[in-house]
# Entry
Amino acid sequence: MRTIVRRLGFYLLAGFAAVTANFFLARLLPGSALQNVLSKLRSANLDQEAIKALEAQYGGGHASLLSQYLTYLGHLLRGDLGVSTSQSSPVATVLGDSLPWTLGLVGTATVLAFLVGTVGGIVIGWKRSGLLDALLPVTTFFQAVPYFILAFLVMMTLGFFGGLFPYQNGYDIGRDADLTPGWNGPFLLSVVEHGALPVLTVVLASLAGWVVGMRNLMITTMDEDYVLVAAAKGLPPWKVAAVAARNAILPTIANFALSISLVVTGSLVTEIVFTYPGVGWQIYQAVLTGDYPLLQGILLVVVFTVLAVNLIADIAYVALDPRARKEA
# Structure
């Protein structure tokens, strides 16, 4: 329990640092971020209170830096991330519409890559020098290719030329598409079809790390004394492999926390290539339009999402590894 509390304190400190850095980000940009935002919102009827809120968020006015910082924190605690200048709607609303798409993409791709890579690594490490070892160079090749190039190749081969899957948007949005967004069969089927290629891209790019890491850990664990004793007692080979895999998988869970940030970053790039309606596509649109509020909101959401996933992975590691609880 003390280990979890100590790590929770670290993540709270990291989150506070992210919030502080986000506050100063607009003030370190060249020019005046406040004037840029006000010029984009000139068509909106802003009252004095709204202008003061923008001054607290982006600097300006006669308030001290400390007062602006405290006001900024107060807005964050109320869930107020500002107003998107490119979409004329609250940033929280824009993120609320796009974040589920990214979470679905990252969650599905990460679970698939973890399960396939871990099971594959266990089998390859157990068999040793089998025919499955030939798959390692293939997976390593995909990992070495940058995300945007791999996404483009997948889109052109399986989408544009192959025609196996749709390669744009999150679901059918054409005039002929008679879909009602929601929890209904036709819409969910369309979402799955449009998400197949982005998910495949992320899985291919991250699969090698799980396979190679688990294979190496499995080979090392298979030579441990307790595994040799289990084999000497006459246990079936699959039970011996299960004993080794149970202990070899612990470092993989720890590596999960380290790799999730790379997966999130890669998924954002993948969304841009496939025009997938997630956070990555919103980042692209915000950069093109100079939408400072949306960029700041996305930065906070991405940072806190990565911190939350890392915390969950740490808790899982402590729960599964008795040695971590003993050290605490």
Q: What stands out?
A: Residues 185-222 form the longest helix (38 residues). The beta strands are 83-84, 89-90. The two ends are 8 Å apart (CA to CA).
